[in-house]
Amino acid sequence: MRVTFASEPGHPDRPNEDYVGATTDAVVLLDGASRPPGVASACSHSVRWYSHNLGSALLTEMTRNANPLPDLLARGIKHVASLHDTTCDLFSGRCPTATVVMVRKVADDLEWLVLGDSTLIIDTGTAEPEVICDDRLDQVAAPRRVQLDSLRGGTPEHAEARRLYVETLHEYRNREGGFWIAAADPLAADHALTGTVPVADVRTLALLSDGAADAFDRYRLAPWRQLLDLMANDGPAELIRQVRQVERSDLHGERWPRSKPHDDATAVVCRVA
What we know:
CATH superfamily: PPM-type phosphatase domain
Shape: globular
Number of helices: 8
Distance between the termini: 7 Å
Strand content: 15-25%
Protein name: Integrase
Structural class: alpha+beta
Number of strands: 10
CATH class: Alpha Beta
Radius of gyration: 18 Å
Helix content: 25-40%
Largest sheet: 5 strands, antiparallel
CATH architecture: 4-Layer Sandwich
InterPro entries: PPM-type-like_dom_sf
Number of domains: 1
């Protein structure tokens, strides 16, 4: 696989909590879940620390271990937990978390895994590519962010509503009837979406954190086919540039309600042929 990617933090003064790693036969994308001011953490480590350590562990596992991807994700989560389980309270629901997308070429197949609301796009040359995203967070979140979406961004009221919204989601994280995401419990890996597709059927893959997938999911800049072609022809940085241009036109979320003006955005394109 030939891999090209672009990644940009949501704010230049804050660390990018996304992670991308790749080899010739594997690629992994993680999107660390930001904590707004006022939301307590039971862990002394940052979200970036978590996403980068877990991403590195997963890439190592994918290149050394032929086990199924959910097993490798469980091993990676367990490994990172072992790095700080003696110093941090990892099972209070208030430790760092991240979405995960993993893709690996094995013989004549491409194996994939998606956990959380990052997006995997598989282009097999048909009119519309296959778009895979774990929407369980959206199902939980949508009815619980009505107040947040009704408020103008950048106001104290919006900041407080965002804090309450994030606190509420803690009650649904990594449990039945809620949503699943990489944190400290390796059992979350059992709930990932997985699949296999023949390498010969695939032209291009794209992996997007939600800050980049907003190009379609929130802003409807173009259909997925056009966005995939844009990334393949002009590079993933162009997709992020267009997302930022739209966001700057609506910094207070009056047309497109959202938690913050900009999110970390990462786009990865993999040419398989």
